[in-house]
Amino acid sequence: MSLAHEPQKPSLRNRLLRHVLLPLAFTWLLGSALVVTVAAYFTQQAYDRALLDDAYLVASHVRRNPESGELELSLSTQEMRTVLFDQSEVLLFAVLRPDGSLLAGHKGLHVDPLGESKGPNFQSLDYQSRNLRRVTIHRQQPAEFYVVMAQTTMSRDRLIQRLLVFSIAPQILLLIFLAAWLQRAIEKDLDPLAALEKGLGQRDARDLTPVTVSASTRDIQRLGQAINALLGRVADSVQAQREFSGNVAHELRTPLAGIRALADYGLRQNEPRIWKEQLEGIAQSQARASHLVDQLLALALADEAQQTLEQKPIAIDQLVREAVMRFLPRADAAGVDLGANNAELVCTVLGNGALIEGVLNNLLDNALRYGLASEEAKRITVALVDNPQSVVLSVYDNGPGVSKAHLQKLSKRWVQGSAGEALKEGSGLGLAIVKAYVSLMGAKLQLDNETPHGLRVSVTFPKP
What we know:
Layout: H1 12-60, E1 62-64, E2 71-73, H2 77-83, E3 91-96, E4 102-105, E5 121-127, E6 130-139, E7 145-152, H3 154-202, H4 218-267, H5 272-304, E8 312-315, H6 316-333, E9 336-341, E10 348-351, H7 353-370, E11 378-386, E12 390-397, H8 404-407, H9 418-423, H10 430-440, E13 444-449, E14 455-462
Parallel strand pairs: 9-11
Antiparallel strand pairs: 1-2, 3-4, 3-7, 5-6, 6-7, 8-10, 11-12, 12-14, 13-14
């Protein structure tokens, strides 16, 4: 599915607001319901207590008639109205005998059946289209009777409604204020992210310089650092590609021109001997060009491997034996005594097998090219030294060596020693490749002159 048809995703600002405000509103709603419930409960208790006091007041005025011995209410109707006066509510009462017959008060306030409970009994009822709250008490003195006291609930209902309004309305206003404040604060905190997005969107594809990040939080700062680190890696990769293409174009121009010149000269001749000489020259030029391409590719791969290199324990003694056996035919053909010292030791280093093999190949190739003695037996030796914390791999020869002033420059690209310049072979990339591989594996490279003459290249690998 194309991007044009993908559903639009919510903005980070709205998502943060929703993730903050929805739980906050739910918590507020739950808290408000709890507060209103508790307030309503205690309001009910207060009104019920007042209603119960009125019931006890009526019960206190029930007397036994001294003449008839029957129970009677000592207050007249007018006196009861005065005692039970309430300017906002209607109070109704009834005094009942144990059999449920009315002794005094309103006829409709009967309790049927009379309960067995001796304590106050509160109930809600609908009486004459009015909601009433009723309490019934049971008295034993001066004789057994019941008092029912009822009251309309308008005051308590209004009080609960006011509690509800005055508890919820301010919190709604606070929630609105909090939402506005959060929206402004989130927008302010996300401004650097928007600026970063705008800067990256307007940037030219060839501009790989670090972006400017005005971070307000550590997360945006880390994001900016990660983007700049990525741009740096991309810039290094692009630079390596440019160097590789430039090096290939520059260095292959000479051998290709030589091959073309040899071929043109051979085509103008009619003698087979000259053809053979030119073909041999073409083969040699092709070999040098192929070797140069291999070295340039090795350097490019070394630059690329900086981010993906995997190191593990490697048996370096086995790699040394394989390398010596691989170069032995070439050494025999050149009359060189190629040997190995301590190759029988079992040595394990922390590194990469392919890179160690590349180090050995380049060191032995360099030694066979430029490290051959002229007036004595030619010797090249590969040695291993097993130390407690490291293993030292050395390749040394008895050739002409390198001057001290030139020794430190030898591992740079396109730099050759005097032997290479005299032979006019190679391109000065062998030790540069070795240095790149050694650096990738976290090892150490050292170049020293041998006594009385020759060159020793040592690589110190850490143990696992």
